[in-house]
Amino acid sequence: MRQTEPVKKESEPATDRLLALLREMCPECIVEGKVDFDKLRAALGDVVD
């Protein structure tokens, strides 16, 4: 019989996951652990208003 892995009872907050993803995809937009929205807007270019 196959063993199943225990399921985590607590999950990582969505904001932490999103910040980690942004840090991975656009590291220049993270300054001192926070999102630099001016740099994020510049990175996104015409995609954002």
List the helices and strands and how they pair.
Layout: H1 14-25, E1 30-31, E2 34-35, H2 37-44
Antiparallel strand pairs: 1-2
Can you walk through the features of this model?
There is one protein chain. The protein has 49 residues and is mainly alpha-helical. A hairpin with a 2-residue loop joins strand 1 (30-31) and strand 2. Helix content is 41%, strand content 8%. The protein has a two-stranded antiparallel sheet. It has a domain at 14-47.
* Radius of gyration using CA atoms only: 17 Å
Give the oligomer, counting copies of the same chain as homo and different chains as hetero: single chain
- SSE order: HEEH
Please mark out the parts with pLDDT under 50 across 5 or more consecutive residues, or reply none.
none
How far is the first residue's CA from the last residue's CA? 55 Å
Largest sheet: 2 strands, antiparallel
Helix content: 40-55%
Describe the structure concisely for a colleague.
This protein has about 50 residues and is mainly alpha-helical. The protein has helices at about 15-25, 35-45; strands at about 30, 35.
Keywords:
mainly alpha, two-stranded antiparallel sheet, 2 helices, 41% helix
